[in-house]
């Protein structure tokens, strides 16, 4: 396990050693951005560390309202509501919507927060084949459960695959259903302005399309949010036990979110640079003959059949001063991977060294 003794950027320190950091989810390099840190420091000086109350009681401050307004403007929606963690978003939303659907259809490789977020009273939960719109359509045609809610990751956390929302949404519409997209790894990255995978696929605005999102990935901060019309956000504030019983976001976290949004909107080149850097790495990994998945995101898996090969490559890179963690592939246990993430702040030199080391390892150890 890597134990950090520094903040995260394109480099980290662990046990006193400097590493080139191709891990985590800091896609735009905002977690340690000077303006974001300064905003957090000023918030601590003004408000202290914690409001020590829920938003529903005495924990709402002007800084929360400013953050929610900024998120709504960024998303082009009427309102937004923030809460303690992005993991809570699916629980909050699926509970609020539970009177509008009678069955849940989710991707077989759905994030744990999706499965954990399905309300206990939902009797019909069906998994369709991973990123397979045809499988979803077949299951919906066979279903006798009434109105479906289809939920999927927008970008899958470990593999960087993008859910085919264009095809999924057409199927959901045909069955008069609801579509929920967990866009934790998409917000700030996907789409022309970073609004996420619905924007990436040019889906029209629709009251039956929902996103759950986080500020802890590309936005570099912490906390979850849901944006939409005021009817939706009012329901969350008035009806969600998870929202009502959670302590309000600490002031430095709220301030960091506001600062990050400002940077993203004023610097669209950050998003483009992250994707360009990732494309460079992915293209070379494919050229070398490694097996990978996904495309068009900062997440680049290198996949093996052997856990020994995957962990061996991760250890080799760590010995050479690069962190790219080994992890078992979700669901399909016969597949194993290292997960490389590329950000806007990685330098050409860092990328060159990473690719050179991958080439050296491949030359020595070959394919699976």
Give your account of this protein's structure:
It is a single chain. This protein has about 375 residues and is of the alpha/beta class. The protein folds into two domains: about 10-20 and about 270-365, Aspartate Aminotransferase, domain 1 (Alpha-Beta Complex); about 35-265, Type I PLP-dependent aspartate aminotransferase-like (Major domain) (Aspartate Aminotransferase, domain 2, 3-Layer(aba) Sandwich). Helices cover about 40% and strands about 15% of the residues. It has a seven-stranded mixed β-sheet with strand order 3-9-8-7-6-4-5, sandwiched between helices. The longest helix is centred in the C-terminal third of the chain and has 20 residues, at about 270-290. It is globular, with a radius of gyration of 21 Å. The two termini are about 25 Å apart. The mean pLDDT is about 95.
Question: What is the element layout, followed by pairings?
Answer:
Elements: E1 11-14, E2 17-21, H1 34-47, H2 62-75, E3 79-83, H3 89-96, E4 103-107, H4 112-117, E5 124-128, H5 133-142, E6 148-153, H6 165-174, E7 178-182, H7 197-200, E8 209-214, E9 224-228, H8 230-239, H9 241-244, H10 251-266, H11 269-288, E10 299-304, H12 307-319, E11 322-323, E12 326-328, E13 336-341, H13 348-365
Parallel strand pairs: 2-11, 4-5, 4-6, 6-7, 7-8
Antiparallel strand pairs: 1-2, 3-9, 8-9, 10-13, 12-13
Helix pairs in contact: 1-10, 2-10, 11-13, 12-13
């Amino acid at each position: 396990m890597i134990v950090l003794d520094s903040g995260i950027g394109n480099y980290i320190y662990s046990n006193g050693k400097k590493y080139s950091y191709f891990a985590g989810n800091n896609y735009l390099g905002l977690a340690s951005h000077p303006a974001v840190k300064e905003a957090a420091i000023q918030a601590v000086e003004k408000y202290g560390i914690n409001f020590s109350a829920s938003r529903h009681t005495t924990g709402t401050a002007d800084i929360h309202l400013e953050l929610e307004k900024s998120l709504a403007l960024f998303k082009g929606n009427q309102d937004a509501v923030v809460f303690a963690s992005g993991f809570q978003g699916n629980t909050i939303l699926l509970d609020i919507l539970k009177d509008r659907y009678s069955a849940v259809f989710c991707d077989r490789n759905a994030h744990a927060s999706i499965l954990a977020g399905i309300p206990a009273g939902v009797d019909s939960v069906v998994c369709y084949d991973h990123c397979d719109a045809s499988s979803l359509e077949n299951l919906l045609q066979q279903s006798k459960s009434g109105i479906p809610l289809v939920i999927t990751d927008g970008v899958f956390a470990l593999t960087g695959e993008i859910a085919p929302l264009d095809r999924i949404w057409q199927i959901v519409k045909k069955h008069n259903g609801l579509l929920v997209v967990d866009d934790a790894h998409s917000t700030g990255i996907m789409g022309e302005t970073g609004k996420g995978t619905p924007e990436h696929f040019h889906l029209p605005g629709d009251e039956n399309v929902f996103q759950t999102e986080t500020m802890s990935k590309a936005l570099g901060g912490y906390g979850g949010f849901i944006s939409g019309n005021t009817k939706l956000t009012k329901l969350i504030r008035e009806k969600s036990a998870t929202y009502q019983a959670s302590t309000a976001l600490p002031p430095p976290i709220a301030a960091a979110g506001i600062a990050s949004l400002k940077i993203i909107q004023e610097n669209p080149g950050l998003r483009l640079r992250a994707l360009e850097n990732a494309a460079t790495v992915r293209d070379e990994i494919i050229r070398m003959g490694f097996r990978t998945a996904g495309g068009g995101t900062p997440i680049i898996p290198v996949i093996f059949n052997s856990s020994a090969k995957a962990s061996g490559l991760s250890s080799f890179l760590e010995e050479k001063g690069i962190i790219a963690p080994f992890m078992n592939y979700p669901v399909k246990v016969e597949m194993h991977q290292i997960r490389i993430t590329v950000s806007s702040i990685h330098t050409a030199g860092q990328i060159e060294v990473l690719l050179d080391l991958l080439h050296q390892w491949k030359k020595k150890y070959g394919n699976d």
